[in-house]
Amino acid sequence: MKRLAQILILLIFAGCADTTSHTKGVYMLMDTSGTYTQEIDKAKAIINYLLAATLQPGDTLAVARVDSASFSEKDIIAKGTFDTRPSAANEQKRKFRQKVDEFTKSVKGSAYTDISGGMLQAVEYLNEAGSGKKTILIFSDLKEEIKKGHVRDFPIQLSGYRVVALNVTKLRTDQADPREYLDRLAYWERKVTDGGGTWKVVNDLERLESLID
Amino acid sequence: MLPNILTLWSEQPVLSLFVLLFIAMAVLYAARKPAHEFIHALSRTIHNAMRIASRSVMYAEKRLAARNKEVLLAAGEEAVQRIIEREFYRINSVVARDLSGYPTLQHKLKDHITRIDEDYTESTEVPPSPPAWLPAIEAVAKIPPTGDTMVAKILEQINKSLNEQHKIAIDEYRKAYSKRHSILKKMMPFWRKMSNILDVVDKTMAGLLERSKVIDSKMEQYEEIRKGTDKAVRMLSSSSLTQFCIAGFVLLIAIGGAVINFNLIALPMSEMVGGGSYIGPFKTSNVAAMVIIMVEATMGLFLMESLRITKLFPIIGSMEDKMRTRMIWVTFSILFILAAIESSLAYMRDMIAADVQALRQTLADVEVTAGRTDNWIPTVGQMVMGFILPFALAFVAIPLESFVHASRTVMGIVAIGLVRGIAFLLRLIGNISRYTGETLIRIYDLFIFAPLWIERLIHTGKGDKVEKSFSKTKEGINSAKGGM
Question: In chain B, which residues have their Cβ closer than 8 Å to the Cβ of A53?
């Protein structure tokens, strides 16, 4: 029956197939450095929200941790493009959730925070996935600490990307001088917009509807 | 630049303004005649152009109205023809059914009449008369007794015999009457049967009479339409508008049904054709669901055409009966298969919805609730709906046909209204331009009132002088006449 339906559709609409991709691709970076590991449950809630309400069959989701050297496939915790059939996609979502659960139980803090490396990895992954709408979610306090010898101070090509910073917590030093917090946000915004992407900050996790357009 | 021109003498702006006004008045006065002619010509040109345009539009309106009338009358003629045809067909079937049975009916009636006649004849049989010798015995019995024992004994014997014979005769007579009554009683069912047969005939005849009245009335309408009378046009227009409204309303209901149908099968279609592919800006699964609904509606349309309920495709209606019957079966089979597919899709939809719900509960860390025991009701309801809706959609062909036919008339009426509106606007613009021209001429004269006033004064002065010289001349002539 499936084949028959496909043939029927192909016969009727042969030659007018849409070349633009309507699928969504989301790459979520989870900061696992220092005290931010305490926020991991919130990240889990966001992933569950994405799986339940936002991502549809055919969409792509990847979750990766941000550690000392994040420009690596090894840091990807769970990834996958959901099947176009809703029932199969639901099964994949269940397995995805299971992987994230396993990771959150065994997560260990890292010494450095390589957010830029994670972003580079995200761009590489989503470009390969060929999604139509690409979003990078950064679940972090945005305090980047690069290991000595790692070079990250170069522009990243983010054209067509939407970068959303989630749960950007205020550090102790930010309490002493709030300008540090504001400068941090401004730095990342500049970095994203200079790369051709759009920037957004969502700190109220009760308002996740606007997470992905 | 402009203020410099306006203020010739910057120290005295009022004087400058007066000078300028004076110059302007002088120029405008000098150009009065050509200016008037120009304004007049322009306004007349626009007025005439608009009037001609309006006349052409009105001519087009007349042609459109005539064409609409033709279409309306043709449609009405066809509709009445159809009704008359149908009535004749009914009469034909009644006549064929009942008249073909008339020989049998007549035979039955004759049979019943014969039997009744026989029974009647049988019932008229005279009862047996008393024996012929009885009057003789009766006369002997009446002889008065003489006292002779022998005679008395004979007489007694005779009396006894007489009584016995009388009794026998009475009994036989009674039996004969009873027999005749029973024969008459047997006649009753035949009478009833005859009465029933005659009732049936009466009903048939009454039905035929009614049909003939309907045909008469429709024939009158038909004649009116053929003549193209205003009454017929009004009647058909009103009928078309009513049909348009009713058919439009039913089509809206059908669209509602199609939307529900679409929602019922769109989600499960993504399980079949995939939920991530797109055709243009639309999801393939949605397009597939829509295509299925459209195919169902089309099959319904063909089915109604094959059944000769609608006449949107004359080629189907004019097919051979054998071919048409095949087409009925083919379209019905496709419709049935599609209805079955929809029913299964509706079932699948319920399963997918339950799966999605379970996933959401799992992701929200909520314990998955056990299903209620009566949760089969919505599933069955959806399946039944999925099966019935395609057949319900098949009947859309009927209001669609009415809508298509009526919309031609309605569109014609709307077009006539629009054309009339355009004609009115053109005439209005023409008249406005004409009166605007006249008003502009008055305003022009108002602006140069001063030179005009002076001109009038001069003319009046000249007139007085002329009059004075005329009266002087007249006086001179008179005095000359008097001198003579």
Answer: 360
Per the CB < 8 Å rule, is A56 touching B271? no
φ, ψ of residue A35 in degrees (nearest 5): -75, -10
Dihedral (Cα; B131, B133, B136, B140), 10-degree rounding: -90
Q: Do A5 and B359 touch (CB under 8 A)?
A: no
Q: Which residue of A has its CA nearest to B360?
A: A52
For tokens 């001429």, the residue is B441
pLDDT digits (tens, 9 = 90+) for B223-240: 888 888 888 888 888 888
Query: Residue A97 and residue B363: Cβ atoms within 8 Å?
Result: yes
Tell me if the domain spanning A23-202 has CATH number 3.30.200.20.
no
- Give the CB-side neighbour count of residue B468, counting CA atoms within 13 A: 6
Residue B147: which region, alpha, beta or left (left: phi > 0; alpha: psi -120 to 50)? left
ipTM of the complex: 0.76
Which one of A52, A56, A97 has the shortest CB-CB distance to B275?
A56
Burial class (CB in 10 A: 0-12, 13-18, 19+), A173: exposed
Positive or negative torsion for Cα B425, B428, B433, B439: negative
Please give the distance of CA A84 from its chain centroid, rounded to a whole number. Answer: 21
Contact A52 B280 (CB under 8 A): no
CA distance B352 to B355: 5
Q: How far is B314 from chain A (nearest CA, A)?
A: 26
Say whether A57 and B273 touch across the interface (CB within 8 A): no
- The predicted structure's pLDDT at residue A4: 46
Under an 8 A CB cutoff, do A18 and B270 touch? no
**What pLDDT band is residue B335 in, cutting at 50, 70 and 90?**
very high
Is the CA virtual torsion A43, A48, A53, A55 positive or negative?
positive
- B351: distance to nearest CA of chain A, Å? 9
